[in-house]
Automatic annotation (TrEMBL), chain A:
Belongs to the YciI family. It comes from Streptomyces sp. R39. This is YciI family protein. It comes from the Bacteria. PANTHER family: BLL7171 PROTEIN, BLL7171 PROTEIN-RELATED. It holds the Pfam family YCII. InterPro entries: Dimeric_a/b-barrel, YCII. Residues 15-109 form the YCII-related domain.
Amino acid sequence: MAKYLLLKHYRGAPAPVNNVPMDQWTPEEISAHVQYMNDFAARLEKTGEFVDGQAVAPEGLWVRYDGEGRPPVTDGPFAETKDLIAGWMVIDVDSQERALELAGELSAAPGAGGRPIHEWLEVRPFLTAAPGGMECHAGG
Amino acid sequence: MDEALLRSLTPSVLTVLVRRGADFAAAEDAVQDALVEAIRVWPADPPRDPKGWLVTVAWRRFLDATRADTARRRREERVDEEPPPGPVPAADDTLQLCFLCAHPSLTPSSAVALTLRAVGGLTTRQIARAYLVPEATMAQRISRAKRTVAGVRFDQPGDVATVLRVLYLVFNEGYSGDVDLAAEAVRLTRQLAARVDHPEAAGLLALMLLHHARRAARTAPDGSLVPLAEQDRGRWDTRLIAEGVGILQAALARDRLGEFQAQAAIAALHADAPTAAETDWVQIVEWYDELVTLTGSPVVRLNRAVAVGEADGPRAGLAALAGLDAALPRYPAVAAYLHERDGDPTTAARLYAEAAGKATNLAERDHLTRQAARLNTRRRR
């Protein structure tokens, strides 16, 4: 099994095919979209492949250390930041093919006119924390 | 297995151990062990005397842990003084336990976790699931909380207001996972209100019951939010409403008004109206005025603006909004609502979309996006 992060962006991904902002959909189209997303997560829970899913707010702050005894420096929110994450889903699947298949299904969520959004999702494999059971002797 | 019984016994079992001389932190751990054991064993082998069973198992666990601790301490050659055995609690043990778990030295999240475990009798796993954090994280939070209150004497009188704030937080968390935190908050507040002679405890209980009564009507089958005005009032729980109103009236009669009673009074006026159109908004505004006097909270002023908009028309509502900081949470949503009623769907749609971007939970975000979509769709037609 391997874990993959499916990342959804507010901004920064290539434009989807069905590119209409959500507040321009009909309320029924929004409901259909929400239903699709919920069903998708529920199905992955049933297959034992769902790990976590979260959405994050569009506005946040940049923060950095500013030296001993001082409060951290904050800046932003940066409206011009190119890449803005909207949320993610973590899945635990048998193969990269399966991860891509699932990302494809998620990208087919219905949007304006009830047609698939064809949204671009980023699929990123997790680096595993523990070394595997087999030791690698190459170069050793 | 009767989990409700198990949970209701928790605080008294805990106080038995403390009364026998166990310190609070160790006693609480031992009771938690006994609870987990009960959940495992009781379904197949229910005890004849549940409380006696819990006391016996918890006390045994406490002794085992203390012996292991003492041995370890000896090994480490430490001669730290044992804290003196806790004084025999005089008044109401469970109430003392509430004060300790809501102690002002605790952060709100710690007080909530400790209250749910020591008073509510929930397991760490259940609390962790309810708050969507890993079990190890919740276990740490609870043990840190216990270290924080380690020096507090068990018999010190506490402030009911701090306990009420903790219970209010639990109630507002709602429910996720297998534990219904709102119902749990109602249960604990009911216990508290029965123990203390405090109009605000009654006020909070009334407030919770009146809100809880509307719960079934508040979400559509697909999980989306249904605003108060559009709820099917036939689905409100009239038994809970009657109970809440009765408790509130008795509290108000004592003429010691507080924040929770005023909030409950507003909830009661909503519950009183057979239809949304028949709501007594004039009286609701008066209660908001009381609340503003009591709290001075800008959030209260924001909600007051909605009530003013209903009582005196949207222009008056917008005027009430004028003095408030636009950065307040839910400000754009309130402004959107008032602008729509004022016949300006374009501004309203823009503000609803802005409000959706600032929403702090998904159901609210989806609801606000739908409102923007509804107005935009209508304009296109």
